[in-house]
Amino acid sequence: MYRPDPADEPRKALRRWLFSVAWKQVGHYTGSAYVRRCVLDPMPLGRLRGIVGPDLHAQMEARETLRALDELKDWQREALLVVDQPASLVAYAKARGMSPGTAASRLRIAREALALRLRRRR
To the nearest whole number, what is the mean pLDDT of the chain? Predict the structure, then answer.
């Protein structure tokens, strides 16, 4: 329990108390059986017998897509993410104070920009 000495400065007393709590938690973690028996391996995937998860090609394509999304402007990314939401494009447009036609146009422009960036990467 946190009961600092009234003579101590409150900020320093709190800092010492938090440090001691963190120190005890780390001590418990590093002393646990899981950590003591953990064996670090530089190539953990090399020990697997079969393919786990998506293949390497699919992972690379996903990373390229994420990089292309990161290069888009904020409004383009937002327009692309709206399609995945349960609300309709019209509800999104009304919430932003724009016409549904404007929202649809922004979505079309964002899709074209994403397609262009993906074509450049391949």
Answer: 86
